[in-house]
Phosphate starvation protein PhoH (Zoogloea ramigera), 472 residues
Amino acid sequence: MATRRTAKSKTPATKLFVLDTNVLMHDPTSLFRFEEHDIYVPMMTLEELDSNKKGMSEVARNARQASRTLDEIVNTCPEDIDAGINLAGPSSELASGRLFLQTELIDIKLPAALPTVKGDNQILAVVMYLFEKFERKRQVILVSKDINMRIKARALGLAAQDYFNDKVLEDTDLLYTGTQEIDSAFWEANGKDMESWKQESRTYYKLKGPATADMLINEFVYQDSEPPLQAWVKEKAGRSVTLETLTDYSHQKNNVWGITARNREQNFALNLLMNPEIDFVTLLGQAGTGKTLLTLASSLTQVLETKRYSEIIMTRVTVPVGEDIGFLPGTEEEKMAPWMGALEDNLDVLNGTTGEGGEWGRAATRDLIRSRIKVKSLNFMRGRTFINKFLIIDEAQNLTPKQMKTLITRAGPGTKVVCLGNIAQIDTPYLTEGSSGLTYVVDRFKGWPHSGHITLQRGERSRLADHAAEVL
């Protein structure tokens, strides 16, 4: 009994999280993401927010939003700021902790190797002061997106961690792949009262059982039997699901702009891309899996042959140039040209599949294709509405969840949005596989009847590229 009382008396108090500037600039709503714990904002964090607020970049917009949020919070408690400001009201009950601003002059005591002129080191000095002030009474933790800042903090004996609240998944191996393999045991367990029928060259199976409860609408199932089965979940009601067999795009008679599926996942992807009922498609996969080629082939077919969409709009993040493309010469399309090498390479492949007409025919086709593909910069997407368009977002892993929302909400009636990317190749600072906008939308859209996702597994570029992906 004595042991139990001691354990109860040592229940840890709420933690005090000290925020680095990059956390607020990455997610301005982070002030409300710490639930019952308290937040401390050093004066240097406010200074760095102020110096980063100018400009039209995403970072500058976030800095301004964070400053406005802080202003609104402070205005709710005009009297005693020293005692902390209750966040329950400003956060609409999302957080119940308190916000503390640095209101006292702190005597900076840092090792001689750390120059005090640097903003990061001044924030570390504040964390050291708070650590000594509270000693063992409460836990003081620095929250930063900067890896080196966290390493320095730990070297000084301070607790530090990454900002985790923006992460959709802790382990990207758990990310939804869009596919599920079934075997004969599946049919035995779930096919007791199975119904089966044919309709317009498609076969339907209605199943109910323990394994069907976790299936999602538009999830693909396959069985490597003889003959092989490839189907997708078209309806779901409780534990009951209806499977529909797929169009076989690996057969030449179903080719899309001369392209056929070379593997199972490519066939799944083409079924999503060619289906008019699917408004939003996400394709993940390493380089050479055919994401861009399949998407362009299906978009050209639906724009030029079936006339389902009026034109193709392609965009991608211009990470190495930063936010601005202004110094490159020419129009918006000409400025984006250096970033659209992947588009040009794939159009060369697709133009070679048209076949008839010789050199003149190919030149005419090339001009026709060019007239229907518009290349746009992300910087000018805000406020636009795309009606009846096929919108392709390439390199989507470099987008934040907020940028992704801005883009997808541009879609008007009759527009299809396709996001392509490889979460293993993120170039944007402070974004990880778990917090990428692409991971975010894959997780949020799964199970919606008008969206679908496929993770492409096999590279189809060349034996050299496949081997390089494995060994390098």
